[in-house]
Amino acid sequence: MSTGSQAGISERTDRTARAIVLLIVGLVLVAIPLKILDYGYFPPDDVRRHAAKVVSGKAWEEVLVLKSDIGMHSHTGWHSLLSVVQSAASLNVEELMVFSIVGLFLLYAFTPALMARFPEAWLLVLSILSVADPRLLKRLLQGRPYIVTMIVILLIAFTWKRLAQYKPDNKIHAALVLAIAVSVWMHGSWYLFGLPFASFVLAGELRAARRFGYCALVGILLGAALTGSPVALLEQVIVHALRIFGEGEGHSFLVEEFRPFDGDRYMLIAVLGFVAWRYMRGAWDIKSVKNPVFILGVMGWIFAFYSKRFWFDLGVPALSVWMIAELGDAFADLKQRQKLASGSRIGMALVFGTVLFLSFTNDLDRRWTKATSRSYLDFDEPKLKEFVGEGGGIIYNSHMDVFYDTFRKNPHAPWRYMVGFEAAMMPDEDVKVYRYLRASNRSEKGFRRWAKKMTPEDLMIIRKKGGSSSTKPGIKELKWMYARGGYWIGKL
Questions:
Q1: Are residues 415 and 350 in the same domain?
Q2: Segment (H or E) for 274
Q3: Rounded distance between C-alpha atoms, residue 174 and residue 161, angstroms
Q4: pTM
Q5: Which domain, by its residues, includes 152?
Q6: Residues 380, 381, 386, 392: is their CA dihedral positive or negative?
Q7: Chain segment 445-473, per-residue pLDDT in tens
Q8: Neighbours of 7 (CB within 10 A)
């Protein structure tokens, strides 16, 4: 048989093996969110308010009590997409949540699978993430638009070498402009793209830095323009971030994901293990770590000591692509030495896929079923409806999860919530009360400050936990009704 014929057979075999591997990868990735949702799992926070807002048809000013200078919100594009889907399919809140969770997870998970030289490497990387720190993959099932920004980081990490080549690749430039524009339109946090730009500079890839800088600038401006209020968006996002981190109240008052992290030591060990593995197999090259992708991952890790979002949203996607590239180099070397047969690739995909599915979907410590036992207030229940009345006022609530759960269940209810999804957006006087409540473990003294402001149309909802859940609040200015699950509702 001629050399050309052998090469043709080998190429067809490789294509067939890749197709089978991709099929295995696809089946595993689709099965993961379906299995987890089958537990009855729904994330406890923002996916609920995004879906409920779209179903309600209200502006945030009609849902929350906000500072007077909060002019717009940063998820315009995401709400626009959800509105189109909801209108087209007549989805309720829960169905819209399922669309958000499954859609964003699959979009993120399939991006490396389709762009990697060896898709099975992506299954191994996801397995490493799942075992090293289960929080990293759980964030991919939150159904929130920050995942769009994470996808853009994946695209940057996979395509950066085409930005660095001598001849400009206009297709890549256009793709990055579009991707960044969609991220800004849907997620808003345009300033995050400063870190990838810095990683290009620190790696000495100045041509790529210049081209990425142009792409990012155009993409940011285009994304802001798509909101209809570009200047307001660009300003509001910065003002909001400064309010969250700049009010000097300490990290304990931030929502969990904005707090510092602990260094994620097992992921650190995994990354160092990849570096050591390259050295031990005699393939050390300084470029394996002196490149924008690795540097961006390290920057995300460092800045996470201030806020873990830098690690979750920037560092982890970047280092995931870096690990895929490291595995790809090793697999390519084995293949070149004819030590990686097509059957071996399929076998690895099956093994890695099994490990990923079992490690990710098991209900360790009830991580997927804990929220299924939560109780919700339904203002359409006759007993509850009779007590709360027609409403139209303000709900003074004790916890953010009271907002998430109650708004999800009652998107059309006429009240506005005092405590929503971010304390920094509350009026100054009320945010002081809320922070006092948190510092004093929900002391009734703090609730009395709000009780003095209440009108007959207002409600106070306190969610008690543990042994005190059945004890009526001692705020005598209000009459109280016990609903269920630790919920107490007070009114004048």
A1: no
A2: helix 265-280
A3: 15
A4: 0.94
A5: 21-366
A6: negative
A7: 889 999 999 999 999 999 887 656 778 89
A8: 10
